[in-house]
Amino acid sequence: MPTPSALRGHFLTFEGMDGCGKTTQLRLLAQYLREHGRNVVETVEPGGTEIGRQIRRILLDPANTAIQPRTELLLYFASRAQNVDEVIRPALEAGSVVLCDRFTDSTLVYQGCGRGLEAGIVLDLDRIACRGLRPATTVLIDMDLETSLGRAKRRNERYGQSESRIDDESAAFHDSVRKGYLALAATEPERFVVIDGRAPLGDVARQIREALRNRV
Ligand code: TYD
């Protein structure tokens, strides 16, 4: 197995609260990089593989209220292990830029800060599932609670309620998620690029491209 440094590509993750616009921004960046001649692979967590999509359905089904925090944690990492082996590592070995919508930082803040699971446990599982693979760059789209929750709610109304288990959490949960993200970004400033997500879509996209100019 090649060490992470032997991987030729660039592993870039997008993070942020529900409704922050990261999925749209990931697509815009993918399009821009392709137009500039890069091979880009887009993927998502949870999901990103056929196995991962089956796991995602369990995780996000609002009917699954009986799910235990540790069950949820293991399922997120089960999806990630599959994605790392099946999609992400092979693409990085081939020299592609891999853009992943959420990764282990999501688990650290949602299950760690949000659900109160120990960060040490999350990092132990990360070692098993990802085998040392870490993002080279993480774009965190930061936004105040009111704006992001308002957007997530409107999206759910538009597309139905099928993927809303975490969206339904309390404001306190989402507040700890946001604080968790900002704390992570502060401890690893060389990996994180923090972007204010409240600006119009095109401005946010430009800020992201500008911040990544010397990295990707
Ligand atoms: P996603 O579909 O990406 O939602 P959004 O489009 O709002 O970003 O992610 C689904 C939900 O899963 C989201 O509420 C965050 C949550 N999640 C975790 O709790 N832990 C994790 O490790 C990951 C990857 C996601």
Explained architecture:
The longest helix is centred in the middle third of the chain and has 25 residues, at 69-93. The two termini are 24 Å apart. With 216 residues, this protein is of the alpha/beta class. The chain has a five-stranded parallel sheet with strand order 2-3-1-4-5, with helices on both faces. It has eight helices and five strands.
Give unreliable regions as ranges. none
> How many domains, in number, for the residues?
1
- N- to C-terminal distance: 24 Å
What is the subunit arrangement here? single chain
Report the biggest beta sheet as strand number plus sense, adding barrel if it closes.
5 strands, parallel
CATH architecture: 3-Layer(aba) Sandwich
CATH class term: Alpha Beta
CA-based shape? globular
Give the strand order of the largest sheet, numbering strands 1, 2, ... along the chain. 2-3-1-4-5
User: What order do the SSEs take from the amino end to the carboxyl end, as H and E?
Assistant: EHEHHEHHEHHEH
- Looking at the structure, the CATH topology is Rossmann fold
The share of residues in helices is 40-55%
Supply the CATH superfamily name.
Answer: P-loop containing nucleotide triphosphate hydrolases
Strand content: 5-15%
Rg? 16 Å
Q: Which class of secondary structure composition applies to the elements?
A: alpha/beta
The average pLDDT score comes to 93
Count every helix, treating DSSP H or I runs of 4 or more residues as helices.
8
List all distinct small molecules, including ions and cofactors, that are bound in this structure.
thymidine-5'-diphosphate
Q: How many β strands by DSSP?
A: 5
